Amino acid sequence: MAAACSPAADTAAKDSTAAAAAATATGNVIPGVEVLLTDSLHLLKGKKVGLLTNHSGRNRAGESTVDLLFKAEGVNLVALYGPEHGIRGEAKAGEKISSGVDEKTGVKVYSLYGTVETPTADMVKDIDVLVYDIQDVGARVYTYEWTLALAMEAAKKPIVILDRPNPIRADVIEGNILELPFRSLVGQHAVALRYGLTVGELMRYLVETKAINAQLTVVPMKNYTRSMWFDETGIPRVNPSPNLRTLDAELLYPGTVFFEGTNATEGRGTDSPFTLIGAAYLKDNVAMAAELNALKLPGVQFDTATRTIEAGYKFGGETIPMISVKVTDRNTVRPVEVGIRLLRAFYAAHPQEFKWREPSANAAGRIRGIDRLAGTDKLTKAVEANTVDELIKQWDADAAKFRDLVKPYLIYQ
């Protein structure tokens, strides 16, 4: 079932809670790691294997891919590589991770999030093949897929991706294509913000269009279709990172993540990150929610909330007013537009208090965080000039262009 990078690679609502319960009972998607162990282990047998993974790399029974490969007959697991949040997924966003040894297996762990983001020659000298197994979230601003992209280029070894679902559907694309001068670990290549691909398809597209130079094999899932939400797959949910705790949060993330680049909070330090947006100065949250609801954005409703923010985050220790974004129809939500409209509402209501976060003095390239997240500086300009309607049209055209670009590289129907 291993699909190399070639066109021959083939494999086979309004109430989100009710839909999830029904879907989970019927889904039967088999993730790439189980396909590998069932009929594609020849890809690794007799080879020294490096594994880039974290806590989300596991089979449906909850067994870690680290342990599965360590025990697999004929497989010699010699190195582990950890992305943001570490191998066990417990570190906070942005927290630097150090290298070490996996306590359970005794295998060396190399951190790819901290002082080193790209594997050095010494880190990969002892492996014959690099395997990747991490649950993606379908958003360009997530670091995991770009840690993989950097490793694919640097390792100069065959790459095997154990594919997993795009949790927010692999048939919906939204947002702009990244402009390469703004590339970073939250966007390395020219792809759409909500890119509508599995990670295997994303890397297949980048390899076959020569954006990445690597020898790639994708081990596809079985029984997966592009229109599936994660809770329709039957695969048990594991939070892909500490602050993405629900499927609704993952759906809104491609838009509400923009607030990481502002002095307002994206909800970190609350019980509902990326569905709560607020600031100490947001005393008019009732009026703002009403204004946003008047836009009649599809699939969402805006409400008000108050939260005490956990120490260590923006407004830590303070009780602040917030806007709550509720998903009412996940099949029609346009999360990128939601994020843009929220930014404009904050800017318009609080032009003095609302700020874009400036880069630190030692930041590489001195590109503002908001521009790295957006993959362009056009977003901030549109928010400030009140031209977001025109920007959204431009970004919709980008999404349509990207949809056409990736069609030849899709693995699933």
Please give a structural write-up:
With 413 residues, the protein is α/β, with parallel strands linked by helices. It has two domains: 3-238, Rossmann fold; 247-376, Aspartate Aminotransferase, domain 1, CATH 3.90.1150.140. It contains twelve helices and 13 strands. The chain has helices at 16-26, 32-39, 65-71, 121-124, 144-155, 199-208, 247-256, 285-294, 335-349, 369-374, 378-385, 388-406; strands at residues 3-4, 48-53, 76-82, 100-101, 108-111, 129-133, 159-162, 174-177, 192-194, 216-219, 276-278, 300-308, 319-327. Helix 3 links the parallel strand 2 and strand 3 (76-82). Helix 7 crosses helix 9 (335-349).
Question: What's the structural blueprint in terms of helices and strands?
Answer:
Elements: E1 3-4, H1 16-26, H2 32-39, E2 48-53, H3 65-71, E3 76-82, E4 100-101, E5 108-111, H4 121-124, E6 129-133, H5 144-155, E7 159-162, E8 174-177, E9 192-194, H6 199-208, E10 216-219, H7 247-256, E11 276-278, H8 285-294, E12 300-308, E13 319-327, H9 335-349, H10 369-374, H11 378-385, H12 388-406
Parallel strand pairs: 2-3, 2-6, 3-5, 6-7, 7-10
Antiparallel strand pairs: 1-10, 4-5, 8-9, 11-13, 12-13
Helix pairs in contact: 7-9
Domain Peptidoglycan beta-N-acetylmuramidase NamZ N-terminal: 49-247
Pfam families: NamZ_C, NamZ_N
Organism: Gemmatimonas aurantiaca (strain DSM 14586 / JCM 11422 / NBRC 100505 / T-27)
